[in-house]
Amino acid sequence: MKLFARNLLLLTISALMTSSVIGADLPDQWYKDFAKAKQTAKQEDKPILAVFSAAWCGPCQAMVKSVYPKDNVKQYLNDWVPVYIDEADYPQVVRKFNVRAFPTFVLLNSQGAEAGRFVGGAQDGEGFIKRIEDASAMQEKMAEIEKKLAENPGDIQTLLEKAELTSSVDRNGAVEIYEKAYRIDSDKFMELADPQVASYIKNRVEFEQQIKRANAMVEKNPENARPYIKRANIYLGDSFTKDLSYNPATLPKALADLQKALELGPKNTEQVEETVTFLTAWQDQENADDKLAEFVEKYPDSAHTPFAQYRLYASAMESENADKAVKHLEQAAKTAPDGRFADWLNARLAEMNAEQEVEKLNIEAPKLSVAEYIKGEPVTMTEGNVYVIEFWATWCPPCRASIPHLTELQEKYENATIIGISNEGADKVKPFVEEKGDEMAYTVAVDDDRSMSKAYMDTYGVRGIPHAFIVDQQGKIVWHGHPLDGLDEVLPQVIDGNFDQLAYLKEKKLEQAQSEKLLAAYKGYFQNIKDNPEKAEEQAQYVLENTEDDANMLNALAWRILTNVPEEKRDINLALEAAKKALEIDPNAQIYDTYALACFQAGQIEEAIANQSKAVSMTEEKEWKDKLQATLEKYKAAATQ
């Protein structure tokens, strides 16, 4: 306790000394005594510029050192009475003018009446002078607005103008004006106000109304747990925002109500206990991390778990433990319900994963050392040139499918060198390359001891082929991936020197997260169709609404519904909708076949025949065509019955 008191005394002395030093740096024209400044202003009929500052305020100190001494500022302030008010020296003046942030600049007329204010300093003298003049002009404009309101106090447009003008100097005051306008005419307010402002004010007013009703219910039924729980839920709705900050005035009230409800014995005791445990952990400043970790372990499926994981993520970031932060963020993103919070989590997760991947990139590319060049001249990588090093094999179907694409890229970008490296022997690769001829129009080499594969593939933990690496003009590996997935997009950017790794990888991570979420919803539909049809329908709708270009996903959803789901649980309309949307994305024979089956099961026989006929006409492979034709005959037979 003595040590604490001593430290507090030292801090106080330090603050007072700092205040004195800052005051000493001010130009001579500045007053430090507010009473004397007011007296001078009256005598000389000059306005007062009152600057409210604090010794601990960095911007305040910067203004003293870099702005107030400027010649243009000193000349401008000759027409004013500038006074420097330190919050430690004049706390009563700070309270009188309701100053809540530093620095705050209050403009007063010669009689001491406020004529304007603004918060925050400026970088230079010109900017500072402009802010003073803008504040003066604002006061003139406010006088015009007040005149209009005196004539028509309920004019919504004028009230909005007053609130907007007030918001630059007094946010709380602006909110009060907005709320007044909303209560006068809510419809007109919602029509004229900025959408974000309108939504915020509407929610505030509705919250107050809800609390008022809840208070009445609690007073009416003080021995019943239910009103307390209802009021707690209202408080919680006001507390947690999309960025997970909370209102310290309402969150403790929610906790108190829930604790009271527990005393009274609610029906859903376990759920209330769960929420109380979470809120208690959340508000524990000293042990929040430990308690939230315990909560997550005990209640992995709780609606509060995404919030707890987010808080643990934030704590890990503060301690600079990026790996731990990513793990918590991943769990939060997995468990968060759809909405802006989930979108934010996924975006931040994608950004962090991209940042980690960027850190692994940009290493110096290993020098090429191969057993033999099968096609093209030997390559020595030099600065100033771009290289694509692709690992492949003759037996690999995806590798063979990538060959035409690599040839096209080599022909298109002559200032890049593409090298295909196989770890097979020359006796296998050479005849393959000779057979391909001009279809394989880029450099080919063999790496039969896998030294290159180890240097590139193993470094990044890559096991599958084909896989390509781009080496930039500085000899750094800047990208790696499947040749058919991103190479054509990234290569020209690397050549032009404008490849933004972080932005590219973030976008890819978001796409990957969305794909995983779609796949989870797709699988979840079939898992829940029997025992939880409402959840299944929700998941199916998610797939439909969020699949923009994946015809295969939609086709698979429709086909599996039509062929795997028991008839009594089968949603034909959902299958029709999914197959139809798939056709809009990619009208191929397989999807026409699916859509025809959906039409047939829905009793739309003519539609089924028409679409199956298209599937048949689009197919060349005999065995598949015969199967489609047999199905078509089945539909035609049904039409005659």
UniProtKB/TrEMBL annotation:
Keywords: Redox-active center, Signal, TPR repeat. TPR repeats lie at residues 556-589. GO terms for molecular function: antioxidant activity; oxidoreductase activity. GO terms for biological process: response to stress. InterPro entries: AhpC/TSA (IPR000866), SecYEG/CpoB_TPR (IPR018704), Thioredoxin-like_sf (IPR036249), Thioredoxin_CS (IPR017937), Thioredoxin_domain (IPR013766), Thioredoxin_ResA/DsbE_sf (IPR050553), TPR-like_helical_dom_sf (IPR011990), TPR_rpt (IPR019734). Residues 1-23 form the signal peptide. PROSITE patterns: THIOREDOXIN_1 (PS00194), THIOREDOXIN_2 (PS51352), TPR (PS50005). It comes from the Bacteria. Residues 20-137, 330-515 form the Thioredoxin domain. The keyword Zinc does not apply. It holds the Pfam family TPR_21. The keyword Signal applies. This is Cytochrome c biogenesis protein CycY. It comes from Anaerohalosphaera lusitana.
